[in-house]
Design goal:
alpha/beta, 60s Ribosomal Protein L30, Chain: A, single chain, Alpha/beta knot
């Protein structure tokens, strides 16, 4: 593993890192993404993803990162502050090759628990859902008609690396519905209208919990495909929770029933 020192803010690698952090199209074009944080990089490595480059700042992270990679670069603090996506990271980041999963790649058990998110827009929300999904032992998260890419830096960071531990697939709603129906997985859509309380619904069977956006909810294609409509009781003046909070409540109801 070769180690180099980068001191210039105009270094070509610095410019590339900034571009990869900011531009989804560039991540897609190169087939790589950026991971910030020692814990996240370790979880990335544990999941078998290939880390091609690691950058670390001794002023922030004194020791050499113990992560297997193709090339190691030491950077000064001004350089790291330029390439960091946001403050508060640990002085370590890496470039990782993207791994795309399809629905056919999912290996589901006899009674899987799947979370489906339709048209999720905020990467932080998706990251938080993945974090809860990992904790609840969810078999897969399927993102339908996504409005953010699965390797957005905010998503990776907010998931605390769960994007690497939970199988996550992006596809269309129609593809997902066909996949779930073919495998006999019950579709439970979270919605206020024409619904029953979530804890009165059987989640011990093969189950897909389907969530829409906070602003508009689910589209009709999901409402019509559903085997049951479920809701979380709202006892105050607000009529919706953050999607990551709602998803966590429903996931843990399934955990409760299955235990």
């Amino acid at each position: 593993m070769q180690e180099n020192v980068i001191t210039s803010l105009t270094n070509s690698r610095v410019k590339r890192l900034v571009l990869l952090q900011q531009k989804s199209a560039e991540r897609l074009r190169e087939g790589v993404f950026v991971v910030e944080g020692v814990r996240e990089l370790e979880r990335c490595s544990d999941a078998g993803l290939e880390i091609t480059e690691v950058y670390y700042c001794p002023a922030i992270y004194p020791q050499v990162p113990a992560v297997e990679c193709g090339a190691l670069y030491e950077v000064t603090q001004p350089v790291y502050e330029k390439i960091a996506y946001r403050g508060g990271t640990e002085g370590v980041m890496g470039i990782v090759k993207t791994r795309h999963l399809s629905l056919d790649d999912l290996q589901l058990g006899e009674a899987p628990l799947v979370v489906v998110l339709e048209s999720v827009e905020k990467p932080g929300n998706l990251g938080a859902v993945l974090r809860s999904a990992d904790a609840a032992g969810v078999d897969a998260v399927i993102v339908c008609d996504p409005l953010t890419d699965l390797y957005n830096p905010n998503l990776v960071r907010s998931s605390t690396g769960a994007i690497f531990s939970v199988p996550c697939v992006a596809c269309t709603s129609e593809e997902c519905i066909a996949f779930l129906k073919q495998r006999g997985i019950a579709i439970l859509t979270a919605q206020l209208q024409d619904s029953e309380l979530y804890y009165d619904t059987d989640m011990k069977r093969a189950t897909a919990i389907v969530m829409g956006t906070e602003a508009t909810g689910l589209t009709n294609v999901w409402r019509e495909a559903a085997d049951a409509h479920i809701r979380i009781p709202m006892l105050g003046i607000v009529d919706s929770l953050n999607v990551s909070v709602s998803a966590a409540i429903l996931m843990y109801e399934a955990v409760k029933q299955r235990q």
